[in-house]
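Q: Please design a sequence for this.
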């Protein structure tokens, strides 16, 4: 009896010691998270916790993925986490990834995308920050792409930086959407491939995506040979390794294919059911939850629009203030230079006036002296003429002296006249120099009065005049009170923004085509893979993903089923 009681106590004690929680690690594209989960939790409990932590509401596109024996699997919502074939060691690791993809991202996605994109890492382009070499350590492109072109890393950086700069100012949500629009047009976007065989045993690839089931040649994953849209399929099931597809038209026989592994069949079925549900959901009226999300998204977009407008106004005011400051600094510098030149001109004028005045005085004195000498020469001539000359020799000498005296008098008269003219010119130059001096003083006075309100600070910046507007560039919290008129105005602005966005999108596509054309000449054709060649052929023929599938579905379901079985 005592032994039985002790045995029960030991069992109870052991039961109490069993852990009630376990650790889970969630890997996202940008981060790792760890959670303590209860052993009774189902997949939905853990998935909901992850989505709440990430702030994600469009949960239907995502799932928690894990790997079993090199086979990918997804956590089932209605099954306990620990009942899955997950590794026993803790932490149990799952990858949070997109499980399903939208047909049209622009129409279906309500929340902002959280992809780790280039612009999210670097922000908007800033020439003062994003200078040559800022991408040197970044792995911008897959090595396969880099090897495909005869371009150095510097050439890639130059083109990427130019592209980055050209799209300066683009809103984050616009950039995200453009990224997804480019991705969703690629042939392999959202397709999960599985190796299968038809009844004849032909090896084929099954592609499962948002549009339906597609059958591919194993050597060509880009262009399907047959397609079956989800709206043609009534039921999908499997038994062991055999899949059975029942068309919507009950008159058409079912068609079957085999896959290699039972686990793969489970995955195929999960993806088919999920994609089919989303396909049908898109073609119905939005649920109340989605309507609420879209209403909140519209309100959020309106708020962001107002915020962008406010920031744009502040940016414009800041730029105008900076331009005004720069213009005032430039004008102040110009006025300083003009003041310096005026001062120098004034000094030159004063020196010139003094020199001319001195020269005029000397010239006047020389003219007086010459006039005096001329008068003396004239007196001497008269005296000589009055003197009696008795001899011929004296007469001849006298005549010679008379002639010399006359010539000297004439020369003195000419020199006196020249000196008088020079004195008049000097007086005129002096007057002009004094007038220049007056103008220079006036100019200096004007410059001094203009620059009196612009004084440089110690830092070298310029204090703006008191009558210039001051700008508060600090972001403030906004309170939004939307009225009917506000909503109408915002609706008009959003519609206008949508039209502008469409124009930008079209322009972006044109730029992409130009970039492709530019680097095509640098492509090394001998390094192209089989998929590269197939993609180029499709592009040359104008075969896009959507129009290819559309052409394939023009034939009846019955004929396509027959074609599949005959492959």
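A: Design:
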């Amino acid at each position: 009896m005592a032994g039985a009681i002790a045995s029960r106590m030991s069992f109870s004690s052991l039961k109490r010691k069993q852990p009630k929680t376990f650790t889970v690690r969630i890997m996202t594209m940008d981060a790792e998270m760890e959670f303590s989960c209860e052993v009774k939790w189902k997949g939905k409990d853990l998935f909901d916790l992850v989505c709440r932590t990430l702030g994600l509401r469009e949960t239907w596109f995502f799932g928690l993925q894990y790997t079993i024996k090199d086979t990918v699997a997804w956590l089932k919502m209605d099954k306990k986490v620990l009942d899955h074939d997950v590794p026993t060691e803790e932490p149990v690791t799952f990858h949070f990834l997109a499980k399903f993809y939208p047909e049209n991202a622009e129409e279906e996605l309500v929340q902002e995308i959280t992809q780790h994109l280039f612009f999210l890492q670097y922000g908007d382009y800033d020439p003062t920050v994003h200078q040559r070499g800022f991408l040197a350590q970044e792995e911008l492109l897959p090595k396969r792409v880099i090897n495909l072109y005869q371009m150095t890393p510097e050439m890639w950086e130059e083109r990427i930086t130019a592209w980055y700069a050209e799209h300066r100012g683009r809103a984050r949500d616009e950039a995200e959407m453009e990224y997804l629009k480019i991705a969703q047009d690629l042939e392999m976007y959202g397709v999960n491939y599985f190796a299968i065989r038809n009844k004849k045993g032909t090896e084929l690839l099954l592609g499962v995506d948002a549009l339906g089931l597609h059958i591919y040649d194993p050597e060509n994953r880009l262009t399907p040979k047959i397609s079956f849209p989800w709206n043609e399929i009534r039921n999908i099931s499997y038994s062991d390794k055999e899949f059975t597809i029942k068309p919507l038209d009950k008159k058409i026989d079912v068609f079957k294919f085999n896959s290699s592994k039972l686990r793969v069949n489970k995955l195929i079925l999960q993806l088919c059911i999920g994609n089919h549900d989303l396909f049908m959901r898109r073609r119905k009226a939005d649920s109340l939850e989605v309507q609420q999300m879209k209403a909140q998204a519209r309100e959020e977009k309106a708020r962001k629009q107002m915020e962008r407008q406010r920031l744009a106004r502040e940016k414009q005011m800041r730029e105008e203030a900076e331009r005004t400051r720069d213009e005032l600094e430039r004008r102040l510098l110009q006025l300083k230079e003009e003041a310096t030149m005026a001062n120098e001109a004034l000094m030159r004028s004063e020196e010139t006036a003094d020199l001319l005045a001195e020269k005029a005085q000397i010239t006047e004195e020389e003219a007086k002296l010459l006039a005096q000498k001329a008068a003396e020469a004239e007196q001497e001539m008269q005296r000589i003429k009055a003197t009696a000359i008795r001899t011929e020799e004296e007469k001849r000498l006298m005549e010679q002296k008379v002639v010399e005296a006359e010539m000297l008098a004439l020369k003195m008269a000419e020199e006196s006249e020249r000196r008088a003219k020079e004195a008049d010119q000097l007086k005129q130059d002096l007057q002009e120099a004094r007038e220049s001096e007056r103008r220079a003083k006036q100019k200096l006075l004007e410059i001094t009065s203009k620059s009196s309100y612009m004084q440089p600070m110690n830092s070298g910046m310029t204090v703006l005049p008191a009558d210039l507007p001051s700008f508060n560039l600090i972001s403030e919290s906004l309170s939004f009170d939307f009225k009917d008129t506000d909503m109408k105005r915002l609706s008009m602005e959003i519609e206008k923004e949508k039209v502008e966005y469409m124009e930008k999108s079209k322009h972006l596509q044109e730029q992409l085509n130009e970039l492709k054309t530019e680097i095509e000449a640098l492509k090394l054709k001998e390094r192209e893979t089989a998929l590269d060649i197939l993609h180029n052929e499709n592009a040359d023929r104008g075969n896009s993903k959507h129009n290819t599938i559309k052409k394939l579905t023009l034939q009846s379901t019955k004929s396509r089923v027959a074609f599949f079985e005959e492959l």
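Q: Thanks. Anything notable?
A: The radius of gyration is 48 Å. Residues 1-16, 455-482 have pLDDT under 50 and may be disordered.
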